[in-house]
Amino acid sequence: MMQIREERSGDVVAIERLTIAAFRDAPHTDHTEQFIVRELRRSCALAISLVAESEGEVIGHVALSPVSIADGAKDWYGLGPISVLPSRQRTGVGSQLMQHALAQLEHLGAAGCVVLGDPGFHGRFGFIAQPSLVLPGVPVEYFQAVRFRHPLPSGVVTYHPAFGSKA
User: Fold this and answer.
1) CB atoms within 10 A of CB 84
2) Which range is least confidently modeled, 9-13, 102-106, 116-120?
3) Beta pairing, strands 128-129 & 76-84
4) Which of 33, 12, 4, 8 is nearest to 94 (CA)?
5) Which range among 28-32, 56-60, 81-85 shows the weakest confidence by mean pLDDT?
6) Which residues is 145 bridged to in the sheet?
7) Where residue 22 sits, what CATH number does that domain have?
8) Does the predicted model carry a pTM greater than 0.90?
9) Residue 70 sits in which domain range?
10) CA dist 13 to 4, 19, 62, 68, 162, Å?
């Protein structure tokens, strides 16, 4: 049995280990995801932090934090990182984390969410490339959004400074 729940203070070390393991062999990463999560938490910028737990072990984690959009749009969030233990990847853990995270965002009254990543995976949850939303230096097809309310904003998207963390 797996359950999705909110992060607790006792999960911090397990989340860091999980995040390191999840991205160890991943392409297109600078292996700073664990630092990003740590700094988001330290800065009180984790709007949502969910873990997947099975038999007392944290096997997955997803973080969401507010983003800024150049046109001043409010209530937009960035999803990521999302991490699943390598031995549990491709078993539905990440999909369940995504579904729960997006449902919580909608419940909070979010206008929408952006994500940088694989269009094949994120597209299954309603994310699509929106040329009006720009993450500098990223090909448009890899920066996607899902909106819960209209209208769709436009402009450069800026993540929390934690996304520049290197240690």
Assistant:
1) 24
2) 116-120
3) unpaired
4) 4
5) 28-32
6) 114, 128
7) 3.40.630.30
8) yes
9) 2-164
10) 18, 10, 15, 29, 18
